[in-house]
Amino acid sequence: MSQELFKITGKIALVTGSTHGLGKAMAMGLGKAGAIIIVNGNSSQDKIDIAVAEYKKEGILAYGYKFNVADEKEVIEAIKKIETEIGNIDILVNNAGIIKRTPLVDMEVKDFKQVVDIDLVSPFIVSKHVVRGMMNRKEGKIINICSMMSELGRNSVGAYAAAKGGLVMLTKNMATEWARFNIQINGIGPGYFAISQTEPIRGDGHPFNDFIINRTPAKKWGDPEDLAGAAIFLASKASNFVNGHILYVDGGILATIGKPSNEE
Ligand code: GCO
């Protein structure tokens, strides 16, 4: 029974921004659980080809599609191509995102808008063009990659936090409008992970590194592979009555106000 609940063999999963980082870790997890992975990136075809080869090396059926999730025309064309060449998208993981660390008072409006465009508007664009097929088939899974910054602010990440906070409410509204078609729309909220995106604020001796270690009950940065289980759960039948939920994978950081350095 339990194996069946988490079975996603043969399901087609589009994971945006899956050439590296958390997107790649989640897509690898879904692929190792049997899903066919549509790898997406927008930087270069070479990067996508290299990533697809890495998925295949793990025994995962993977195909690469380069498109800009913020460009509706490119998204429409890509989804049509994917669903013609590979098959219907059963699982959509809206992971692609950027961060710009600048104090709000100094931030250019164009930079603020770019972060919101990619981190909040793009999940809307991609979901809007994938969900129609899911509505027709009366089945589908959408997973929006939020953040613990969906719940808490931090100096210099105001645009990112605003976008990721908005993504929580977009997830809830997608569930409100689409759950009746047997589509489950949920979010994953990563805490602090040891990936390239956090390299500038991590590393031995970096003040933020010590802060995160002390602030996180698990006393460590997350390992990208720690997200695979949450992705498989929300992509499988095991979550068929879960909707509009944000599953935080954060080592407990959101559970606590922290403790003084002299306390265990
Ligand atoms: C930062 C970090 C965070 C984390 C993650 C937390 O600058 O505070 O980059 O944004 O990467 O998003 O959920």
Description of the structure:
- This protein is an alpha/beta fold and 264 residues long.
- It has a single domain (2-251), classed as NAD(P)-binding Rossmann-like Domain (Rossmann fold), CATH 3.40.50.
- The chain contains 8 helices and 7 strands; from the N terminus they run αβαβαβαβαβαβααβ.
- The protein has helices at residues 2-5, 21-32, 45-57, 72-85, 109-137, 158-178, 207-215, 228-235; strands at 12-15, 36-41, 62-66, 91-94, 140-145, 183-190, 246-249.
- A 7-stranded parallel β-sheet has the order 3-2-1-4-5-6-7, with helices on both faces.
- Helix 5 runs parallel beside helix 6 (158-178).
- The radius of gyration is 18 Å and the shape is globular.
- The termini are far apart.
- The structure holds D-gluconic acid (GCO).
Number of domains: 1
**Order of strands in the sheet with most strands:** 3-2-1-4-5-6-7
* Low-pLDDT stretches: none
Helix amount, in percent? 40-55%
Mean pLDDT: 96
Report the bound ligands by name, code or SMILES: D-gluconic acid
Category from helices, strands and their pairing: alpha/beta
Radius of gyration from CA coordinates: 18 Å
Annotated CATH topology: Rossmann fold
What gross morphology would you assign?
Answer: globular
CATH architecture: 3-Layer(aba) Sandwich
The named CATH superfamily? NAD(P)-binding Rossmann-like Domain
Order of helices and strands: HEHEHEHEHEHEHHE
Strand residue content: 5-15%
